[in-house]
Amino acid sequence: MQTVSIDLGQRSYPIHIGRGLIDQQGLIAEHVRNRAMIVTNQTIAQHYLDQTLASLGNTPCSSVILPDGESFKNVAELDRIYSALLKENFDRGCTLIALGGGVIGDMTGYAAASYQRGVDFIQIPTTLLAQVDSSVGGKTGVNHALGKNMIGAFHQPVAVIADMSTLDTLDDRQLKAGLAEVIKYGFIVDADFFAWLEDNIDALLARDTQATAYAVKRSCEIKAHVVEQDEHEHGLRALLNLGHTFGHAIEAAMGYGEWLHGEAVGAGIAMALDTSKRLGMIDEPAQTRGLALIQRCGLPVQPPKKMTPELFLKYMARDKKVSAGTLRLILLNDIGHACVSSDFDHSALHATLRHFCA
Q1: Is residue 149 domain-shared with residue 215, that is, in the same domain?
Q2: What is the rounded distance in angstroms from the CA atom of residue 294 to the CA atom of residue 272?
Q3: What is the total count of domains within the chain?
Q4: Which of 12, 49, 239, 333: disulfide with 45, CB 3.0–4.6 Å?
Q5: Residues known to be catalytic
């Protein structure tokens, strides 16, 4: 087991990374205050719910099982978590355990942030995307038909337990979607990691244990470093949203679940590269290099044919990075060097939208 620490003062917590962690007696239980509620989905419950319950030993624990999929990341399903807690008289000393991917992690975290004005929760991410991104940093929430993750709160977990054994049951499409968040870190702040990914992407796709362990650990280290400096996304943390403004527009317009989050982010990064090139911020070799890595991950570099410039602009106007009515984009100055920009030439953005929606 390797551990990455995220230093947030009294809200600091460990990110444990390794194989077989769910089965490690006491590892989960040591972070439970008195009794626990496991929140998971129908798919993950079949694989890992009994294991998780067994590892908790004598810790009192209940569970609630939600439907699987992004389309169920909404207030109606969130209410099922609240109802389960209330029916069993869970008090403010309880701990929620998010056992699943990004949808379960985000929903459980928001339930923990809001139930009785805040209770503890533990992240046990079971997808690559969740292990390298959504389980770390305390962003929680649910989707709205008009915008992704527009209802939520910042609420840090007390621990993240990334059991890489859970990736053994992850299908190839979900694995590739997770790689979108991995390569994002190389694009925004770490050119050396980007180069390592170019050399090792085939090993990651082949599920090589050593390569995957390094990719997860390095991704968590980068995210922890960013979150430590800007927990509530006032500036630097926005860099973690490279490709997401375009990607969230795709998800919302297509209907949640039609495209996986990582697939939409892959196309979104390709569009951010194009806008950066049109603004003269990166040159053609950097753009070509970036597109090549996205494609080698098996991710799309074009949005769905249904998308139009008007649809993109409609949903991008509701993006959380909009400030005082001004859209902010995450753009690239080079591989490994991203920036947040609000004063860019919008004609470049419109040219990108026309090009990709042609």
Answers
A1: no
A2: 12
A3: 2
A4: 49
A5: 117, 139, 181, 223, 233, 237, 241, 244, 248, 261
